[in-house]
Structure formats: structure tokens, C-alpha cells
């Protein structure tokens, strides 16, 4: 059984976010204009009247967010030697990362994925436009077993890192949910002041 992130792991995740998103180019102040979708986007999924059946554990391998042009591989993230949560490396082929001590997308609980807003000299990060997502828009997590878990955005919040909502992000929930996290807001030196957090609920599944 995958351990659900408790207060200790949630605090570690917060510490990683405080140091892992800053640096590089771009001011990160307000949400930039959204890029055109990579393909023609379907109408936003509606939250169903009946909950979608939770999925069995399967590691995410890809993440697609049509409204902001994201289509990225997903890597696994664990804990660093200092006890903080790892973040994806700063590279020119920036990708999202799934925190593997959280549920996999579609399992009951909050599945947590992190990504950079900027990646140093390489420019924009994979989650550069995350703050531009809107309620009702679709997120697709491609799983290792061939299933796609579709989520509907329920809220997008920008919060000061000092006020990170640990319980809202990592706390127990009744159904399968998703959390996408990056940095945002103005920068203090090389660090961003805020976190952008997307909350979403499982709305459909495809494949197996």
C-alpha cells in the first residue's frame, strides 16, 4: 500500500517547493496569455452526477492539458537526501514529475504532480501557463497500464508560500483527485514568492 502523505511528508514537500521553482528567466508576475492548444480542444468535461469509479494503482507516464498546450512525459519524484521532495531537474526538455508517495492518478486521494514555471537559462518551464487554467477545463493523465484518467479542474489558487495550504493539498479526500503545483507571483531575487495550485477531480476514464 502506498503511504498517504502525512503532515511530515507534506512539510517536506512544502520545503522543496520553496527552493525548487526559482531561478532562471521570466518574471513570473501575472499569468501570461495562454498559448493556443496543441490540438482542437474538446468542450470542458462536466462533473458527473455520479462519481467515477476509482482506478487501480498505475504509475503516470504522461500529462496532457489541452487548454494551455501541455503534453509532457512524467517522471517519478521521491525524497531527496535532506528529506525534501525532489523536483524535476532543470533541463531544456523540462517535464512534470509525480510525487510517488502520493496516490497514482485515479486512485482515491490527492495525486500530486510538480513542474517548473521557468528552467534557468532554458526559459519557460512545462507549467509556465498553469495559472491560466480555468474551472471546468480538462487534464489527462496517461498511465503505465494504458488507461487515461481524465480530471476536471475545480479550482486554481495562487497562494503565498508562507501560507501554503498543506491540508488542502495533501489531506485525505473521499475520491480520486489531482493537484498540480508550480511557482508563481513576483520574484524575490531568484525565488518566486507564491505557489500556483490546481485542484481537479476525476471525471472520466479511457482505455483499459
TrEMBL record:
Lineage summary: Bacteria, Bacillati, Actinomycetota, Actinomycetes, Kitasatosporales
SUPFAM superfamilies referenced in this protein's UniProt entry, alphabetically: Sortase
NCBIfam families in alphabetical order: class_F_sortase (NF033748)
Statement: the UniProt record of this protein carries the keyword Lipoprotein: yes
Taxonomic superkingdom: Bacteria
Pfam families: Sortase
InterPro entries assigned to the protein according to its UniProt record, in alphabetical order: Sortase, Sortase_dom-sf, Sortase_F
Signal peptide location: 1-26
Biased composition (Low complexity): 39-51
TM helices/strands, residue ranges: none
Keywords: Hydrolase, Lipoprotein, Signal
Region (Disordered): 25-51
Name used for this protein in its record: Lipoprotein
GO molecular function: hydrolase activity
